[in-house]
Design brief:
The complex is a heterodimer of chains A (about 200) and B (about 190). Chain A is mainly α and about 200 residues long. Chain A contains seven helices and five strands. In chain A, the strands form two sheets. In chain A, strands 4-1-5 form a three-stranded antiparallel sheet. In chain A, strands 2-3 form a two-stranded antiparallel ribbon. The longest helix of chain A is centred in the middle third of the chain and has 29 residues. In chain B, helix 5 packs antiparallel against helix 6 and helix 6 packs parallel to helix 8. The chains are: A mainly alpha (about 200), B mainly alpha (about 190). Chain B: Belongs to the GINS3/PSF3 family.
Chain lengths: ~200, ~190
């Protein structure tokens, strides 16, 4: 999948904004939002928030997790832990990128937050690489993807499944030849055509 | 890697690889197969290299006309090197279709150690694909990879590029700057034309 498609999926996340205009409820495919009251915080999908922000129609409320201290602890945990730790949510990178991109002035200490999120991302990506290599070396037949976000899983996507596929195929092809002489009774249920 | 794919080009290429074979029977009028032979007939006991597709069909006859030997990359000496450190081997030179040919050849290995070597080699060399994907020195890092490994690398690079371009877009000032630069250039080019 293209990263932009995942961004599109992630844009459906609900975020808080403070509009500076008043409007009735609006009805969208993904639900109804509003009514908009100037100065009162409300929840809208991320894509709508970005659109309104670009038109200077609202102020973004920083999401709970976009906080220097909280992110510091996540970063430390991520550094210490051998496994992937739980992220604030599935699309943290997309939310961070979009909000910090269009509404950096609404977020306190935006530059620092940007750096920390990038650090966390980099730590996780390098961890992903090393664990992929370790998975192949150890000869494991499956990998656990706990706490990996969609964007991160997508980044290994053609390579890792293809490699596992290929390993499996080599295993099956080489095993078939050795087993066809040893035990021919295994296939008897599925028909004897398998036996040479 | 598709063994049963009749029309797959890569499979055709794999089965066209030459394997050393020993003929078990005298074959009349087949001397042309052996370029060094002067006679018309092919003698039993001759060792020549023939394509895998031919070897396979001669081997499956009853009684078999040939006994298939392992190509040198699957032999004991190379197996030892591969098991020690597969990453040092230049697969592009030694075995373009190492894994695919290995799958075919594995059944001719009496000790059946080829299969373990194939798996082990693949596991070890996965690291090389990973590093070739992110490497800036793409020529040197891709060079020692076999044909199928190159395929993998190519598709991994596409993902990698897409992701890094996604990360750069938006809050990176470079994109707008180059766009403006292009725009000016275009204008200048237009002015020069008119």
């Amino acid at each position: 999948m293209d990263p932009f498609e995942i961004e599109f999926i992630g844009e459906n996340r609900i975020v808080s904004i403070i509009p500076n205009f008043s409007h009735d409820k609006i009805f969208l495919i993904c639900g109804e939002f509003g009514p908009f009251r100037a100065g009162l915080p409300m929840n809208v999908p991320l894509w709508l928030a970005v659109m309104l922000k670009q038109k200077q129609k609202c102020r973004m409320v920083p999401p709970d997790w976009m906080d220097i201290e909280a992110l510091e602890t996540i970063k430390e945990e991520e550094k210490i832990s051998r496994f992937f730790t739980k992220m604030p949510h599935e699309h943290y990178m997309i939310e961070a990128k979009l909000i910090l991109g269009v509404a950096a002035e609404d977020i306190p200490r935006a530059a620092e937050i940007k750096t920390i999120i990038k650090d966390i991302w980099d730590i996780r990506m390098s961890k992903l690489r090393t664990s992929m290599d370790a998975l192949m070396k150890s000869g494991g037949s499956y990998g656990r993807l706990d706490h990996l976000t969609m964007m991160e899983i997508n980044s290994v996507k053609p390579l890792l499944p293809q490699a596992m596929d290929e390993l499996h195929r080599i295993k099956m092809m080489t095993r078939q030849t050795s087993s066809s002489t040893l035990n021919s009774s295994t296939f008897s249920q599925s028909g004897s055509s398998q036996n040479k | 890697m598709s063994s049963s794919n009749y029309l797959s080009i890569s499979d055709i290429l794999v089965t066209n690889e030459k394997v050393p074979c020993k003929f078990l029977l005298d074959l009349p009028k087949m001397g042309f197969l052996d370029p060094s032979a002067a006679e018309n007939d092919l003698k039993a006991g001759t060792n020549i290299e023939i394509p895998l597709w031919l070897a396979e069909s001669l081997y499956t006859r009853r009684p078999p006309l040939v006994s298939v030997d392992l190509p040198k990359i699957y032999k004991e000496t190379y197996r030892e090197i591969l098991n020690a450190d597969a990453c040092t081997v230049d697969m592009h030179k030694l075995g373009q279709h190492f894994y695919e040919l290995g799958c075919y050849i594995a059944k001719h290995d009496i000790k059946s150690e080829v299969s373990a070597t194939l798996l082990n080699t693949y596991r070890q060399r996965f690291k090389m694909i990973l590093s070739a994907t992110v490497s800036t020195d793409s020529i040197n890092s891709v060079q020692p990879l076999s044909a199928s490994e190159r395929e993998r690398t190519k598709s991994a690079v596409v993902t990698e590029r897409a992701l890094s371009s996604w990360l750069k877009i938006g809050d990176c000032p470079l994109t707008t700057a180059s766009m403006i630069a292009n725009h000016r250039k275009r204008k200048r080019a237009e002015m020069e034309l008119s």
